[in-house]
Design brief:
By secondary structure, this protein is α/β, with parallel strands linked by helices. The protein has helices spanning 19-33, 58-67, 69-74, 105-116, 123-151, 158-170, 181-184, 188-191, 226-232, 240-258, 298-312, 326-334, and strands at residues 3-5, 12-13, 51-53, 76-79, 204-207, 215-220, 264-268, 271-278, 283-289, 318-319. The protein has 12 helices and 10 strands.
Amino acid sequence: MPLLLFPGANSTTLEDPMALTKLDQRRQEHMQKNGVDQLSNPNMDENKFLLIIVDGTWTQARKMVRCSPILMERCQPIQFTSTSAEDRSIYGSIREQPDSHCLSTLESCSRTLSLLEPNNPNIHETTDYLHTLLKALVYTQIEQERINLAKQPSIRNLEKIKLKQKRQRELGLDLNLQPAENKSQEKKKHLEHKQSNGTELGETKIEIETALGDSFLLRSLIPSDSVFVDSRWPYRSKKSLKMIESQIRADNSNATQSGCSCCLGIDHDGRLVACILRHRNGSLGILHVDETYRRRGLGKILLSEATSSVQRRGELPIAFIVDGNTHSEALFSTLGW
């Protein structure tokens, strides 16, 4: 009978001294119920279990199990309920875990194998391999984040970086996510940039030549604009509104230092009708103009200003366009992308 690593009221707790005995008994009962004769299956090892592990975030894991009822029908769920201080997840150094006792998939696999096969002479070598793989992943990701931050220091949230550094110190990881001072000197130039036209930060009143002849206002997006942006985004989800609001807040914070806003909108008669956003990874996106206001050059103005803002920060403008979106390709090309 396969074992499914998934916590729950019906899961066998592996720390229980009788856990392995109970699992073996249930396996025997399962074999008898399904008419499996071990004598007719010489390749069957009575000391081995098939272990199934659901890989994903907690939300994803619960959904996979809920949408796959056969897993609970055919498998015996198991769990472990405690982790020592030395078992604390090193994956938590790059991604915050729901709780201090939570482990990554690889760490959970290692922990489970150790509890299932405590007398296996090769178990320490096996689990060491798993931990080595995870450490390589963690160190590589931290190093890449340090490199990216040195290139584009204004993209990432400083508070999140400090929390990561704190978790790394607690885990004994001597890695610094912030760029070294000698590497950041060149980046200070864009932080000292101030708008020379004397207008309020991110708000420049401009005249757009249209048949209506009305005045439009180009300005920085504010957190409350996230509802508009999210409602116009074709890839919105249950979590996208919060993500967009977070990006706008981060851009506002960066703009107070650099004088350059990259999350922009255009108002008409006090109502937002167009927008562009800069994502956490530094790319420009969610460029949208309400249908009534299209073919007036609003999209070009937004993209041009956002591109200039990124460049004034001393960073490289990037964007991703869905294959087949010829209108966006043409717009970006006209601005020299």
